[in-house]
Amino acid sequence: xxxxxxxxxxxxxxxxxxxxxxxxxxxxxxxxxxxxxxxxxxxxxxxxxxxxxxxxxxxxxxxxxxxxxxxxxxxxxxxxxxxxxxxxxxxxxxxxxxxxxxxxxxxxxxxxxxxxxxxxxxxxxxxxxxxxxxxxxxxxxxxxxxxxxxxxxxxxxxxxxxxxxxxxxxxxxxxxxxxxxxxxxxxxxxxxxxxxxxxxxxxxxx
Length: 206
Fold this sequence. Notes:
67% of the residues lie in helices and 3% in strands. Strands 1-2 form a two-stranded antiparallel sheet.
């Protein structure tokens, strides 16, 4: 008797898989952006609390949550530009809902998405393992780091402090990749994403 079959969301897209955006893909990205725009605004309060009581290095780790949209969107639809669209739209939603940081959020969203997009492009939008997601998260964090540290005036801090901040930031954005991966896997199990690339992922014997 055959064993049960299950979806493997991490499996590479087939060589013939289209990378053309569909209406469903756009809808998924918009929903991800709106949901995480609201989450990002809600995170502002706890983030400031972390900054006040945990110090700047801990604050850098807490930044990781703001990278999830730009990782989850592409993980779900697996299309070129999905990281860019997801994170920038989430930043716009965050700004419109009333986040305290204003239009500069869009700059952060753009920079955060560039690093992730580059990693997904490097793998041809076909590799969606946990390692890929972690690498994409770290790349997003590193690409956006110079602007972030300049904007907040962190470049004036002592080198040991900056080194600690680099480590905690890297941990935070790596965790963002893990969150995006497992959140996406949980969502696909609901059946709500059957018309997306992750929902159409090849099945394997288990």
